[in-house]
């Protein structure tokens, strides 16, 4: 399983993904689930993936080849005129890869499926964020849906829903995401550190601050321990529940 989050802010976009893949508890590996394409001053595009590893790697490889090879330039993430067209292109590539599995008896709703988060900015347009489904359709983040999650989403969602603010800083967003990821990995062994991140500054049109947060990172350890203590303190502060008389 996987956990990835893409978040829209007034300041820009924040992406975070875990790196754990597994085929059983005795076969755990680490793979990067975030890919970035850029033409500095013209565009920056980030893709995160959840689902079958062979499918997601095939999608990224095809997109990468078409961005580097002149004869495969069209369609290319470095040539499309807008983020909407980029989302359409990525959705078509995803559907194309899954249909190749379908030719051997597999289907989009089988173990070969994948879901993607695509975000970035192309010169002349705003920064945008999309959620792309294995069937090849997609939706865009908006005021009512300012962030997307893929993979093991349920454990990390409550803190995002309660604490997200569109005008929060990158630093505040990173802290929020680390709490969300910590809650997820504590509840599900198929999600694990290290976590890759990318903070894209709106209108910069280049790759922003990127990095990787390891499980033994000092700040992450403080966040994890502090969040646990804060939850216990908050529980103690709530009014006591009173049971009625024993029937």
How would you portray this structure in words?
This protein has 247 residues and is of the alpha+beta class. 33% of the residues lie in helices and 27% in strands. The chain contains five helices and twelve strands. It has helices at 53-68, 83-102, 157-163, 170-187, 218-237, and strands at residues 3-8, 12-17, 20-22, 28-30, 34-39, 43-51, 114-122, 128-132, 138-140, 147-151, 195-201, 209-213. It has a five-stranded antiparallel beta sheet with strand order 10-1-2-11-12, with helices on one face. Helix 1 packs across helix 2, helix 3 (157-163) packs antiparallel against helix 4 (170-187) and helix 4 packs across helix 5. It is globular and about 70 Å long. The N and C termini lie far apart (46 Å). The mean pLDDT is 90.
